[in-house]
């Protein structure tokens, strides 16, 4: 089984050009499309190119609100979701010119204006409060070096209140546990150092139970069908939980410590690594790779939810991110299904971009010092 890297690269590169009329419904999600496509290219080890990088920098600079945060498109409302996507995309470009687009003082001020009394965050001014907002806020603050005690306050308590009786995390207290919210909740807890507030054993049991025995992929909720995007949303939870358990339940996540030693591949590089069966992530990494390679790949390029669906940029990004999670073990060994050619760059499960780009961005902004 071979990952069709050439077909997938062509598919996502088309997404960074002129899109068809069918994408008008995503006009408020344009930084997301940029992030999904860039992340797919980066995880496959494909070079972005100077023209593409310059275009991304220019476009996202026009999406930034003068008062902080990024909007879904030029002239739109600043919103945490496209802010997260824009920071991820600029981190993937990874140049000083990309980093300097982000107005850190305005971003911190805007994030504080979204802080709710319960310690959580609103997605935008007068917007909804949920675990997704908490993750997006502390993620962009962590990457850009502005995550301080004021922004951390109450995040852990709010997320813990969203954990259900069966272990999964929902959007709000009392809501149904969901793979996306469970990912957001746990990742936020790692970034603020509050995983001790979670019941980790039932959380892990809930996530492991979402991998379907026949398909090998993950469902997002109980009694739902498998969906390729949960290859990452659910698949990234066990390695994050393992990190928390091994480093101390109140430890703040340190970028670059998920894998030992860090691994990287370059286009055309011959892979020499220790291959193992089984892996270390408390789910069947081989079965998940089977689902992605057999059921989620569209023959002409791009990856999808499930076989009867069409490929799209969202599912291409998160299928590949999930494939990377399933390939890389915490001890530095690899679990590869099919050809060694299938190997992807190691994704950082917390920052949701490649480990190398996450390290580079976090260190760059840390060197700039705090923002007051």
UniProtKB/TrEMBL annotation:
Lineage: superkingdom? Eukaryota
Cofactor(s), names only, from the UniProt record:
Zn(2+)
EC supergroup of this enzyme: transferase
Q: How is the cofactor bound?
A: Binds 1 zinc ion per subunit.
Protein name according to UniProt: Protein farnesyltransferase subunit beta
Instruction: Pinpoint the Prenyltransferase alpha-alpha toroid domain residues.
Output: 3-353
Q: Which GO terms describe its cellular component?
A: protein farnesyltransferase complex
Annotated organism of origin: Thecamonas trahens ATCC 50062
The similarity comment for this entry is: Belongs to the protein prenyltransferase subunit beta family.
Show the coiled coil region(s). Answer: none
Q: Which InterPro entries match?
A: FTB (IPR026872), PGGT1B-like (IPR045089), Prenyltrans (IPR001330), Terpenoid_cyclase/PrenylTrfase (IPR008930)
